[in-house]
Design a protein that fits this description.
heterodimer, A: mainly alpha, ABC transporter involved in vitamin B12 uptake, BtuC, 14 helices, B: alpha/beta, Rossmann fold, four-stranded parallel beta sheet, two-stranded parallel sheet, 11% strand
Chain lengths: 289, 350
């Protein structure tokens, strides 16, 4: 029974194995980024990025036609430009990070729509660009796995300055030259994970798998190492359960995975030991005279 | 300049620019009647019936995806200046009502599918050829393998109940894939043209009669081509469920991972069932479409060892010098591609 329910779909079908591998890769690469985004109060960056990459994809389409590679590279460049510009502006002016990001992504989106309209294209570029987890070919898998590797290595190298930058950026700036490297390196990694995620898995999955497990993990552990580990575990488990639900109950895969992660978030919110609602209710009762 | 004065200047210049933009610019040729068609296939039949008496503007051009199209201000201007607007209906153009309101269109509107009995997705098929094989496939919804129909009756019921929640209604809008139904399209359009331009009624009727003859020839031609394919191999796998009417008319069955719209997301069950079907029936080829994303079909092809049999044109014509520049070319191209892909003695035969 367990065998049939859990293992057999993956044994019988190659596309299920690939989908699982792709999800595991993005859980390893993107979810740790999500933890740091959450700590820096930038959780809505993912959605902003989904719009910001449009002009890059449009230019890629103009240059090379309907080539997914060109459009992805173009999207990457546009996303990087927006992320780095907004990071720069937030460091140098009074504009906060979320404000500057909002400003730049809106400009980017408008530019993208303009480029697409003047060229008179009938094809919905974004529709073509965003993929689905069930359709991962070798190239997409290789992309996801390499980006996961690059993210993990970079994260390991920049771990301490990154943590400090989240907690007290001014202090880091005053004592170390790594501040700028860390800040922009982190933003670059976020864009990389997001664009690759969009290409391979679609917007919902890429952004969802970044943010939801991190948000859920917050209610279980306090330390940063724990947060990263627990969130990656939740992401992987959600992927597995979501894929199985999609297989057995005829649900679209991306939304199924994200909804499972959402349920995990709801559960964590309610019964999580670190600040969950139940724990709060119990604690306050203990304090009453 | 004080801050207040510069603020006023800014405000008034913005206001005047907006006012200027709001003045409609109407440029009309005195002879040809301006007509707007929502997508390229309708534009083609309009041109054939209307001839030189009308000037046709098409909103969704060649290779465009009407399911997910987003209208532009140029489209609104075109609609506003049109005397006649031709839409497909059956909820194919989900965006058209809003566009009509926004453009304040006050001309005639004709629904090309008026009078056609639509196929209800997931329900009974409407056709008379008594092809039980194809009918079963329609009744249970195109997403289930044959063997599972009995066991999954409850599941199919749930799915039928849930079909109404699909983004694009429960009627299959792709009626143009059956040439005999396309003749109804042409008839509706001719009637509308006669109504708004009675002076040229004779020309419209003549054009209609000539086109109907060509459509009959096409119907017979495709019928012969499809009849040559052995019964066991008459299953076509493509991206989304666009070929319901073609299947009914010519006795094929079509399977697709996505539903009635290119916007639908496939579930793992759909893909798994399709792969099982292809393996069991040893189908040699799957067919990509000219619109939308082909990666899911590539995945299915990879896993089953099927080849990509060719490109089918479903919701749009190709460029004028491509293989499907007109409706007749499109239908012939599709039929030939299908025949070559499915025939055992064809290039992909096993």
């Amino acid at each position: 029974m367990i065998w049939e329910a859990v293992f057999q779909p993956f044994i019988e079908f190659g596309f299920m194995r690939r989908a699982l591998l792709g999800c595991l890769a993005i859980s390893l690469g993107a979810t740790p980024m999500g933890v740091f985004l959450m700590l820096r109060r930038m959780s809505l960056t993912g959605d902003a990025m989904a719009h910001a990459i449009l002009p890059g994809a449009a230019v890629g389409y103009l240059v090379a036609g309907l080539s997914l590679g060109a459009m992805t590279v173009g999207g990457l460049i546009a996303g990087m430009a927006v992320a780095l510009l907004s990071g720069f502006v937030s460091r140098v002016t009074r504009s906060r990070e979320d404000t500057s990001l909002a400003a730049f992504y809106l400009v980017s989106l408008a530019l993208g729509v303009l480029i697409v309209s003047t060229r008179g294209s009938n094809i919905d570029l974004m529709h073509v660009l965003f993929g689905t987890v069930l359709a991962l070919d070798d190239a997409a898998l290789a992309l996801l796995c390499s980006i996961a590797s690059v993210s993990l290595v970079t994260l390991a190298l920049l771990f301490r300055p990154l943590v400090l930058e989240c907690a007290d950026p001014e202090f880091l700036r005053s004592v170390s030259g790594l501040s700028a490297v860390t800040h922009f390196g982190f933003l670059a990694l976020v864009v990389l994970n997001l664009v690759a995620g969009f290409h391979a898995l679609g917007t919902l999955m890429a952004v969802g798998i970044m943010i939801l497990p991190a948000a859920a993990a917050r209610f279980w552990v306090e330390g940063i190492g724990g947060l990263v580990s627990v969130s990656v575990a939740i992401a992987m488990l959600s992927s597995l359960c979501g894929l199985l639900l999609s297989y057995h109950f005829d649900l679209p895969s991306g939304p199924a995975i994200i909804l499972v992660a959402g349920v995990a978030y709801g559960l964590s919110l309610s019964i999580g030991p670190a600040g969950g609602l139940l724990r709060q209710a119990l604690a306050s009762r203990r304090l009453e005279a | 300049m004080t801050t207040r004065r510069s603020a006023f200047t800014l405000f008034f210049s913005f206001a005047s620019v907006l006012l200027w933009l709001a003045v409609p610019s109407v440029a009309r040729s005195n002879d040809a009647i301006p007509v707007v068609a929502t997508f390229s296939i309708l534009g083609d039949v309009l041109k054939r019936v209307g001839g030189e008496h009308i000037a046709v503007t098409t909103l969704v051009g060649p290779n465009g995806d009407t399911h997910v199209y987003q209208p532009t201000p140029a489209d609104a201007r075109a609609v506003r200046g049109a005397t006649l607007l031709v839409v497909n209906g059956l909820e194919f153009e989900g965006w058209i009502d809003r566009l009509i309101d926004a453009a304040e269109f006050d001309g005639e509107r004709v629904v090309a599918t008026k009078g056609i009995e639509p196929i209800v997705f997931g329900g009974e098929a409407h056709h008379d050829d008594g092809e039980d094989h194809a009918e079963d496939e329609h009744v249970a919804g195109q997403e289930h393998a044959e063997g599972e129909q009995v066991a999954d009756v409850d599941h199919a019921d749930d799915e039928q109940a849930g079909q109404g929640d699909h983004g694009h209604g429960t009627h299959d809008p792709h009626a143009w894939h059956d040439p005999s139904l396309f003749a109804v399209y042409a008839g509706n359009i001719a009637d509308a043209l006669v109504e708004i331009d009675p002076g040229n009624a004779a020309d419209y009727r003549d054009n209609l009669a000539a086109y109907r003859t060509e459509l009959d020839e096409l119907d017979a031609q495709i019928g012969d081509m499809m009849a040559a394919i052995p019964e066991a191999r008459r299953t076509v796998v493509t991206s989304h469920d666009a070929f319901g009417y073609f299947a009914c008319a010519y006795g094929l069955s079509f399977e697709a991972p996505r539903g009635l719209s290119t916007e639908d997301e496939a579930s793992a069950t759909d893909v798994a069932d399709l792969i099982r079907q292809i393996r069991e029936r040893r189908l040699p080829a799957v067919f990509v479409e000219s619109i939308g994303d082909r990666r899911l079909l590539d995945q299915i092809a990879r896993e089953t060892g099927a080849v990509i049999g060719g490109t089918l044109y479903t919701g749009a014509l190709s460029d004028p010098d491509g293989p499907a520049g007109t409706y007749l070319d499109m239908m012939r191209h599709n039929a030939m591609t299908l025949r070559q892909g499915l025939e055992p003695s064809g290039p992909f035969g096993k």
